[in-house]
Specification:
The chain has 181 residues and is mainly α. α1 (10-57) runs antiparallel to α2. The protein contains 3 helices and no strands.
Amino acid sequence: MNNQNIELSASFAESVTRARLKAEELAEVHAEAVEKLETIRDRISRIEAERAKLVSSRKPGEPVDDATAGKVYLLNQDIETLRPLLVEVSNEEAAVSANLAGAQGRLAAAEQNWTRHQNEVLLANLKQRVAQTEQLLFGILNDVAQVGAKLGKPHLVQSWSPSNDLKNLVSFGALPGRGFR
């Protein structure tokens, strides 16, 4: 009779740990990309607001003075410089977001594999315990048969039979009225 428990494999836990670390790393990178993207959007909005304020400050029909025109020109240049950067950072954020989604999917799969492995090991250990218990029961019934033979009752073992609950559990995988499988 084997009394050794079947052990959990560390590789499943290591897979979950690696997947979790990668997902956390990508989440940080994604957060940084989103922050960078929001900073650029905010900067463009502030520049556009400043430009609109300068343009709206002159009265209709009034010529634009050189200082205001120079400021508007510089603000337009800033916006034109930031727009390609906004597109680039937006593309980077989208790529990191896709990588993060993939990493989160791999983490979910690794966690599912780990849970399945735990359940498989638990089931194997329980089957082992059932086999050990069965061997123990055979030994007890053998002892009863030997004592019965000594007492002149050779059929004493036959007076015992498994309970209906045990029969139902073995035959159908459930105890009556308990509703589990």
